[in-house]
Design goal:
The complex is a heterodimer of chains A (about 290) and B (about 270).
Chain A: H1 2-45, H2 47-52, E1 56-57, E2 64-65, H3 68-99, H4 102-117, H5 120-139, H6 147-171, H7 175-183, H8 188-199, H9 201-217, H10 220-225, H11 242-250, H12 255-288
Antiparallel strand pairs in A: 1-2
Helix pairs in contact in A: 1-12, 3-6, 3-9, 4-6, 5-6, 6-9, 7-8, 9-12, 11-12
Chain B: H1 2-25, E1 32-38, H2 43-56, E2 60-66, H3 69-77, E3 83-86, H4 92-96, E4 99-113, E5 121-122, H5 124-132, E6 149-153, H6 158-167, E7 177-179, H7 182-190, E8 195-200, E9 209-210, E10 212-213, H8 220-224, E11 231-239, H9 246-255, H10 261-266, E12 270-271
Parallel strand pairs in B: 1-2, 1-3, 5-10, 6-7, 6-8
Antiparallel strand pairs in B: 3-11, 4-8, 4-9, 4-11, 4-12
Classes of the chains: A mainly alpha (about 290), B alpha/beta (about 270).
């Protein structure tokens, strides 16, 4: 009987291992595929011309493949989204974790979860119909499809991940810290910002990094509101992100153009790897403390 | 564990059923699969034709893979589909590579503006000047004093290729927005009173105004008689040397027959035959 049980254990162990390896295998497969299909175009175009070239004319008679506008747009767009999204998300998290009455907290938290579940194409559509005309009227520019629209959409899209992870981090702060601070005569607001927030800072940093990852990888929503023209980034100018550069041209591409799109994907992938490394760093530091 | 076995059983029986069905259909008179691949602009037209063809021949499966004209032409060349769909004429290098083009229908490309825009007629030259940035303000063409916002499609799109080649503005268009679908272009133009865009005549909705070009309003008649200048062909691409399979040939004959004309018209294009 015991032997049989042990056998079943071993089999199930094997099954789990296999399923785990499937995930690892997928990551390896994608990495190898991206590197293999991304390198040839970079070699043909030249790494410097590819990364630092400022014109992208993939279908012209004499095509040029410079992705600096895309890289800068992705960096600026993500930074802008963080600039808007982090203060709002952080303050919302402090409110939810420390101040909100339980009922309000339950309602707001489910609203935040719902926000996380809205498909990005819906964000894009609402952005296109409401935000883009709104920005056009508000700032008196000829057209509202711009870097700014994309930043606003991205800022809203990263809110849920920032709020959720920050709330978890703030709630994990031992109540003794706060009690001690309150006992010393600090007000509750002072306590939350001077004691709780610093104690939860690596968790909050992880939340920010998670937001960066979400913002830099988003394609559909920004494609619909950013205008999608490969200009050098400027706030009211139509811009194209790394993700949308791949997505918008893939359907019709061929030859070197298609290979170059894979190279863009490789660059994007390296960005995501960096962000993941940063995330791991913060989480690990959290654990060691 | 039992549940898993049950699912396995279900899956297995499904596989068997499908194989059996596939086996059955091969014994019927007209059977098999017609695969088409290509232009996204042709979706409405080819979808209507495929559906009608399947209804008439119950054993036939019709598939359409919306990849874009370039991909469709490549697919038929590599033998990955029976019929390639292209919303532009074949280039010389593609014809010499052993491909034949058969014009299935004509598609007018409408130039659209916001309904509030007072401009309602432009000629091809003026449209070209607008798109190259030579005319940047609507007041120069009789409209309001406002910057022209140029909206178009992404590089490689059949509609963009058609529009730019007809207006002679290839690689010179100063787009403000490059959107990836006809629907997006219509939406963007409907949201901006100073915008101008282009879209398949079939997709023009009431939310935007289609300009007449050189005094000719875009419509089925003006496209067919050639008086509306901004139009392009919808082309069926086949291999010149290799014959089509029996069922693919039947579909080809059906699509180019007079019977198909009302279907094509209903899908918003103008039948060539």
């Amino acid at each position: 009987m015991q032997k049989q049980q042990r056998l079943a254990e071993t089999i199930i162990h094997g099954v789990f291992l296999l399923l785990g390896l499937v995930t690892v295998g997928c990551v390896l497969l994608i990495t190898v595929y991206l590197v293999l299909s991304g390198i040839p175009a970079i070699r043909q175009i030249g790494l410097v011309d590819f990364l630092l070239g400022d014109t992208w004319e993939s279908t012209a008679a004499e095509p040029s493949f410079g992705i600096l506008p895309f890289i800068l747009t992705s960096v600026y767009g993500t930074a802008g989204a963080i600039l808007f999204g982090v203060p709002v998300g952080f303050l919302a998290a402090v409110y939810l974790a420390k101040l909100a009455p339980p009922r309000v907290k339950a309602v707001v938290e489910s609203a935040v979860s719902l926000l996380a579940g809205i498909p990005s194409v819906v964000y894009g559509l609402v952005g296109m119909l409401v935000l883009v005309p709104g920005i056009r009227r508000l700032f008196h520019v000829p057209d509202g499809a711009s870097l700014l629209s994309a930043i606003v959409v991205l800022a809203i899209m990263i809110l849920p991940s920032i709020i959720k992870v920050s709330v978890t981090a703030l709630e994990a702060v031992p109540s003794e810290y706060e009690d001690a601070s309150l006992a010393l005569g600090a007000t509750s607001i002072e306590t939350y910002f001077r004691v709780s927030a610093p104690a939860a800072k690596s968790g909050i940093a992880a939340a920010v990094v998670l937001g960066v990852g979400r913002a830099i990888g988003e394609a559909m929503a920004v494609m619909m509101v950013s205008g999608n023209v490969p200009n050098m980034p400027s706030l009211f100018q139509s811009v194209r992100f790394l993700t949308t550069a791949v997505a918008s041209e893939m359907a019709y591409s061929s030859g070197l153009q298609r290979q170059a799109l894979f190279s863009i994907a490789l660059v994007l992938y390296l960005f995501i790897l960096l962000i993941n490394a940063a995330l791991n760093f913060f989480l690990k530091r959290d654990k060691e403390r | 564990m039992k549940k898993i076995q049950k699912w396995m059983g279900l899956a297995l029986s499904a596989v068997i059923a499908v194989t059996a069905l596939a086996g059955c259909s091969q014994q019927q008179k007209m059977s098999g699969t017609v695969t088409t691949d290509g232009s996204t602009s042709m979706e409405n037209v080819i979808g209507a034709l495929g559906e009608a063809f399947q209804n008439e021949n119950s054993g036939v499966t019709f598939t359409y893979n919306p990849t874009g004209s370039g991909s469709g032409i490549q697919a038929v060349q590599e033998g990955r589909c029976d019929i390639g769909l292209s919303s532009r004429n074949l280039k010389d290098e593609e014809t010499t590579a052993g491909l034949t083009a058969t014009v299935l229908a004509l598609d007018g490309i409408a130039v659209i503006v916001h309904p509030d825009n007072p401009v309602s007629d432009l000629d091809v030259e003026t449209i070209a000047k607008l798109y190259t940035g030579e005319i940047a303000n609507w007041k120069d063409v009789g409209g309001n004093d406002a910057t022209v916002v140029l909206i178009g499609r992404e590089a490689g799109s059949g509609t963009r290729d058609g529009f730019e080649s007809i207006t002679g503005t290839a690689e010179q268009c100063q787009y403000r927005q490059e959107l990836t679908s006809t629907g997006d272009v219509v939406t963007a133009v409907s949201q901006n009173p100073d915008a101008i865009g282009y879209a398949s005549l079939a997709s023009v909705a009431d939310s935007v105004k289609a300009l007449s070009v050189g005094g000719v309003a875009p419509s089925e008649e003006t496209v067919k008689d050639g008086s509306y200048p901004i139009q392009r062909p919808f082309v069926l691409v086949t291999k010149t040397d290799a014959p089509l399979s029996e069922v693919a040939q039947a579909f080809f004959d059906f699509a180019t027959s007079a019977d198909a004309a009302p279907l094509i018209a209903k899908a918003g294009a103008v039948a060539a035959n």
